[in-house]
Specification:
The protein is mainly α. It has two domains: about 5-80, Orthogonal Bundle (Arc Repressor Mutant, subunit A); about 85-235, Tetracycline Repressor, domain 2 (Orthogonal Bundle). Helix content is about 80%, strand content about 0%. The protein has helices at about 5-60, 65-70, 75-80, 85-105, 110, 115-130, 135-145, 150-155, 155-175, 185-205, 215-235. Helix 1 crosses helix 2. The model has no long low-confidence stretch (mean pLDDT about 85).
Length: about 240
C-alpha cells in the first residue's frame, strides 16, 4: 500500500462508518414511525368499536363522545384527535363497508368473470353482511342523513364516499358490458344503482324474514330484470 492509499484508508473507513450510522438511524426512524402508526390505528379501532357498540345499544342520537371515550378507555380529547364528531366516526365505518365490498369483488377472479347481475348481487350482499351486526345504528344513521346539516348526507366526505362507490359500479358495468361504454346508461346507470342500493337497504332494515331471505330474493329478481332490460337496450 502506497502512502496515498494509507492516508485514504482511515477516511474511507470513517465514511463507511458514517454511512452505516445514517442507515441505522434511518431504520430506527422507520421502525419508530411504523410503531406509531400501528398504535394510532389500534386507538382508532378502539374508538370505532366503542362507538358502534354504543350506537347499537343506546342509539346514535343518545350516544355522546364522552361515552365513546369512556367505553374506549381513553380521554375525550383523544377521540377528537381522530374524529371531529360522532358523525365522522359513522362516515369512517361506512368507508370500511365500501372498502370491504370493493375488496371482496376485486380479489375474486372468478366473480370478476361472472355476469353483471351476479357481480352486483355479490356487491350488495357483502355490504349487507358487513352492516348486519349494526342494524339499529344503520336505521338511525339513515334518518340522521336526511337532516340538512348532517355530515352523513351531503358533506364533502359523504359525497366522496358515494362517488367512489359509483365509480366502482361503473367499472363493473364497463368490464361486463363494454358495448355500453359511452352510452347513456354508462352515465346514468351507476348513480341510479346507488339509489337502488339505498332502496334495498331500507327494505332490508324492515325485513323480518329468517336470514333476510325476502331481501335476497328481491335483490336477485330485480337485478336480473334490470340487467336484462339493459342488455335489450344495447341491441
Amino acid at each position: 500500500m502506497n502512502q496515498r492509499e494509507k492516508r485514504a484508508a482511515p477516511h474511507g473507513r470513517a465514511r463507511r462508518k458514517d454511512a452505516s450510522a445514517r442507515t441505522s438511524r434511518a431504520v430506527l426512524r422507520s421502525a419508530g414511525k411504523g410503531r406509531r402508526q400501528q398504535n394510532r390505528e389500534a386507538v382508532r379501532k378502539r374508538i370505532v368499536n366503542a362507538a358502534l357498540s354504543l350506537f347499537q345499544e343506546k342509539g346514535f342520537d343518545a350516544t355522546t363522545t364522552m361515552a365513546i371515550a369512556r367505553r374506549a378507555r381513553i380521554a375525550e380529547g383523544t377521540v377528537f384527535n381522530y374524529f371531529e364528531t360522532k358523525e365522522d366516526i359513522a362516515l369512517y365505518f361506512f368507508e370500511l363497508e365500501v372498502d370491504h365490498a370493493i375488496a371482496m369483488l376485486r380479489k375474486n377472479a372468478k366473480l370478476r368473470r361472472a355476469p353483471l347481475e351476479e357481480k352486483l348481487f355479490a356487491l350488495i350482499q357483502s355490504q349487507l353482511e358487513f352492516l348486519e351486526p349494526h342494524q339499529r345504528f344503520i336505521g338511525a344513521a339513515f334518518i340522521h342523513a336526511l337532516r340538512p346539516a348532517s355530515k352523513l348526507g351531503l358533506s364533502s366526505q359523504a359525497l366522496a364516499l358515494r362517488n367512489r362507490y359509483v365509480t366502482f359500479v361503473a367499472e363493473l358495468i364497463q368490464e361486463s358490458m363494454p358495448r355500453s361504454s359511452g352510452g347513456l346508461f354508462t352515465w346514468l346507470g351507476p348513480p341510479v344503482f346507488w339509489i337502488y342500493y339505498l332502496g334495498i337497504l331500507l327494505y332490508w332494515l324492515n325485513d323480518n324474514s329468517e336470514g333476510k331471505q325476502n331481501t335476497l330474493a328481491l335483490l336477485d329478481r330485480s337485478l336480473k330484470v334490470g340487467v336484462m332490460l339493459l342488455r335489450k337496450g344495447e341491441l
